[in-house]
Every structure is written in C-alpha cells, then in structure tokens.
Write a sequence for this structure.
C-alpha cells in the first residue's frame, strides 16, 4: 500500500491484483457470495418481498455497484451482506465465512448515506472509534488515524467537531473511519447521496484513488448512473417489487480497466457515455432509450 | 464566536441588527430594570399611598429585617440547602440508575411506568406529615426523602428519554463494529443521554429546594427556612417572614445556577468559532 500511495496514477493492473492477493490468504476466494437470497419484510399491511432470488459474486478487490430505482432492495442487499439484517432464505458468505462471522471478525468497513459521526467526538476520535472498540493500543491508534485523515485530505481538521465540517468533509471522515481497520471489503450505502454534484464528483475521484490504494473490494449502493459507471468494475442493475437482479453490466472503460486509470478525463470520454447508455438501457428493461446519452439524469 | 458572527453579518450584508455586545448588555439590563421598577412601585404603594405595613411590608423594611436576622437566615439556608442537596443527589442517582434499568429491560420499564406516573402526580408535600411522624420529630430524614422523591421524577423521565435518543445509523454502526453492550453503553448510549440527564437535574434542582422547604411547614426540627417563615408569619412578623422568603428565593436560584453551570461545564466542547 505504501508504494501505491506515493505512486502516480499510471495504470498498474498487475500490481493491483498482486496487492489484493497479498491481503487475502486464498487469492481465488471471492469477497462476497450471495446464493438464492430472499428477504421478506413483515409490515402491518402484510408481507413485502424486498429481495427475490438474488445470486451475486463479488471478487476480491472488485468494485461492484448496486443500482436501481427506490424500493428495489439495493440497500437491503447491502445490509444483508453487512449482517445488519437477516435473510429470509438463502446464504451469504463474506471471504468464505458466514456474514455473521465476517461481521464479528470485522472483515468489512461500512459507510452510510448519513455520515453518522458521533457529535461529541472530534474528527480524530471519530475515526479512532472502531480501533478503540477493538482494543488497538493508543499509540498505534494515533498514527493510524493521522495516516487515514491524511488519506482523505483532512489532516488539518483532526481536532474539529463534526458540526464544524461541511457535509462532504463529514462524509470523508466517515470513509476514513470505514477504512480504519484496513478491511478487504468496503460496504457503502449511497455515501454521496446527500452531497452536491461538484462535491460528489470530487468524492468519487477520491474514492477511486483510495480503493485503488487499499485494494479493497467495494459494494457500492447508488441510484446515480454516471456515479456507478465511473466507479465500478461491474454494475448490478436491479428492478423493484420484488427486488431482483435485472442485469449485470461489466464496465469496459478504455483499453485498461485498472482503477488507478480512472481520472476526471474519463468522464468526458466516449466509452464512458457508451457505458452510461448501456446501464440506462438495462434499467429501462433492455429497450433502447430514445434520447442521447447526454440527456441522462445526473443523480 | 462574536468575531465570526460579526464578519458573517458584514459579508452577507444582512439588514442592520444589534451588535452581539449590545444584545448581551440588554439581556442583563432589561430584567434588572423591570425588577427596580417593580420594587420602586411597591415601596411607593407602602410609603406614599399608605398601604398598611402590616399587610404589605415595604422592600426597605424587608431588607432591614434581612440584615438584622442575617445570622439565623444563613444557618437556616444551610439547613434547608443541605436537605435539598442530599435529596437532589440521592434522587438523581436513583433516577439515572432506574432509567438505565428501564431502558435496558422493557419489563422493568413496564413495571416502573405506573409507579413513576403515581409519583409524578402525588403532591409530594402531602407525604411530609406522614414521613415526619415515621422518622420522628428530630430527624431531617423525612425532608431529605421528600426532596429526593421530588428530584427523582424529572431526572428519571429525562434520562429515560435520553437513553432512547440513539439514532438508527449509530446503532447500525455499533452492530457493524460488533460492539458488546458495555461498549455501546459507554461510547454511544451514555453520551447521547448526557444532555437529557443534565436537563433533568436542572429541573430537579429547583424542585428539591421547594420540597425541602415546604416539608418544614409540617413539623419536624426547627431552624430551616420553611419553619422560620411559618413561625414569623404566625407571630405576625411579616417583614421578617418576607426576609426569609427572599432567602428561599436566593437558595433556589443558587441551586438552579449551580446545575446550569454543571451543564455548561459537562457539555462544553472545543471552543466554538470554527467555520461551519
């Protein structure tokens, strides 16, 4: 990781793969395996089928986005992977373990749409929270926190309180906190959903850099097509009621798909728009969309 | 803080407003002015209009009595204040502990809910004669118990509410961290509840003084503010009775301000004034 931080944005696919491999004891092992998962919510008006027969594999080091309209169960699926809810049927494994065991072993880091910082703790203390809970010695904690805050560009804000930061900065603190224990898997539920468009694009670029640096697999929930296309190796398009996987669209952005190569210029390349169109058509049920790719919704 | 506020006002070009300093001065001066006017009118009624000194002692004679009886006023404040303080501390500790139990186990909540509702509506002073005869005429315990019961209710209710203020995203986070219940309590539940607990204690502080004082009207050892007020009034020394009332108000204010200060100290965070 240390050489990746200092390195340029030059494409290094082999190195990225090797980096991910050195973290996982078994390189062939997938980060997330979802097999035949159903989720039914009991509500006052009856049962709601949130997810129906979901099968999905996320490889180690892979960036996968879940996209779909509201109510398609994308957040529910992420919560099941995180073991924050239990599936009604089917199995979920994270790095070969049950999702519960993976949670207890802290195999993943997580970030939500709300930053969810503790308002009475400083930025540094918020990032240190998971380390503190898991008994990391205070000297190690301090150096790790400093390193993380440097990574998300908030080195000067360690002693501030969350309410003194902008929404984008708070979200960066939340991402630093999610990365605190160097997880091999990062779960993100619309982490940029509440940010303005400019901040959002900046955060996306930073996330691409950070995920390339850490080599972690990412499951990223969003309802923005350009965001999914820009960030992902594969985009999982979901449909609502009941939540199903409609199509999985692999992203082929340029000759070289390494994450490190995804820079701001990518947003203006032809392949980017082609991929946006592909995801868009998948979302609309496979039928070609009449208007040009440029008319796409931006959020 | 004031610097950022004024620069913000300058840069955004808002319509002219009072400067923070004027506002702060006004906040202090305005109530004092009202007090002076009321006292002046009162003195005017007695000395010029000629309302009987017997019915309504003038502020001047009350102050005179206050100075003349300062020694007994001070010792009375000490006695009543001690009772109120012991009651406040014990009642608050019980309130916080029981609220923690009720928040943790819903069965405890359901068991205690009717009891708390009953305690909240009992006119606490109605217990005074009963407790006085229970613990004997020379014991301060009955008064302390009454102050404790009076303090308990607001502390319990506020603390319980505070324990229920954790947000779903924080609870999810704690679950994702596989934090045990002790850790959740220490890092999330208690800090979330802290402002609510302190508000409860602040409300309880005035109630503790009032109940400790009123409990003295119903017998028990002499010497507190309450018993001195009733004795003075019974012997038609109205100005002296009023002097003790003034002392009671001062004691209540002292308790309130002390808890307010505690709240400020505990909830104080980094010096604010950073950019938002």
């Amino acid at each position: 990781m240390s050489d990746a931080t200092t390195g340029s944005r030059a494409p290094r696919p082999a190195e990225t793969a090797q980096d991910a491999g050195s973290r996982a004891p078994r390189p062939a092992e997938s980060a997330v395996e979802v097999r035949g998962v159903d989720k039914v919510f009991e509500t006052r008006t009856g049962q709601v089928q949130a997810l129906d027969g979901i099968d999905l594999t996320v490889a180690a080091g892979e960036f996968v986005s879940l996209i779909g309209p509201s109510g398609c169960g994308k957040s529910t699926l992420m919560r099941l992977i995180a073991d924050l809810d239990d599936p009604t049927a089917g199995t979920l494994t994270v790095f070969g373990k049950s999702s519960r065991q993976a949670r207890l072993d802290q195999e993943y880091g997580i970030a939500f749409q709300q930053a969810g910082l503790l308002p009475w703790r400083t930025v540094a203390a918020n990032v240190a929270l998971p380390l503190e809970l898991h008994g990391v010695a205070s000297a190690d904690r301090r150096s790790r926190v400093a390193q993380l805050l440097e990574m998300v560009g908030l080195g000067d804000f360690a002693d501030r309180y969350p309410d003194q930061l902008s929404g984008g900065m708070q979200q960066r603190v939340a991402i630093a906190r999610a990365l605190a224990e160097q997880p091999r898997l990062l779960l993100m539920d619309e982490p940029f959903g509440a940010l303005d468009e400019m901040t959002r694009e900046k955060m996306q670029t930073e996330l691409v850099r950070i995920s390339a640096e850490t080599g972690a697999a990412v499951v990223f929930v969003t309802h923005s097509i350009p965001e999914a296309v820009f960030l992902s190796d594969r985009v999982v398009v979901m449909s609502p009621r009941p939540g199903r996987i409609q199509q999985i669209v692999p992203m082929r952005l340029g000759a070289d798909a390494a994450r490190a190569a995804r820079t701001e210029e990518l947003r203006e390349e032809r392949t980017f728009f082609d991929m946006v169109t592909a995801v868009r058509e998948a979302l609309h049920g496979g039928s070609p969309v009449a208007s040009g790719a440029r008319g796409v919704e931006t959020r | 803080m004031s610097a950022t506020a004024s620069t913000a006002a300058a840069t955004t070009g808002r319509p002219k407003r009072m400067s923070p300093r004027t506002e702060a001065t006004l906040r202090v001066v305005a109530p004092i002015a009202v007090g002076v006017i009321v006292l002046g009118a009162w003195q005017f009624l007695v000395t010029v209009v000629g309302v009987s000194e017997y019915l309504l002692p003038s502020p001047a004679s009350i102050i005179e009595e206050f100075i003349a009886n300062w020694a007994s006023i001070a010792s009375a404040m000490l006695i009543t204040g001690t009772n109120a303080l012991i009651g406040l501390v014990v009642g608050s500790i019980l309130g916080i502990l029981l609220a923690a139990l009720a928040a943790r186990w819903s069965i405890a909540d359901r068991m205690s809910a009717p009891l708390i509702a009953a305690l909240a509506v009992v006119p606490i002073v109605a217990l005074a004669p009963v407790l006085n005869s229970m613990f004997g005429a020379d014991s301060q315990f009955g008064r302390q118990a009454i102050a404790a019961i009076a303090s308990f209710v607001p502390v319990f209710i506020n603390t319980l509410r505070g324990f229920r203020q954790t947000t779903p995203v924080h609870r999810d986070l704690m679950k994702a961290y596989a934090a045990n219940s002790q850790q959740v309590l220490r890092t999330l539940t208690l800090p979330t509840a802290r402002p609510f607990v302190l508000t409860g204690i602040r409300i309880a502080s005035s109630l503790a003084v009032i109940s400790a004082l009123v409990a003295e009207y119903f017998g028990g050892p002499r010497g507190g503010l309450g018993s001195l007020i009733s004795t003075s009034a019974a012997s038609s020394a109205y100005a002296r009775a009023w002097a003790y009332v003034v002392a009671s108000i001062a004691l209540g204010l002292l308790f309130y301000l002390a808890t307010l200060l505690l709240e400020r100290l505990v909830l104080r965070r980094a010096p604010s004034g950073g950019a938002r």
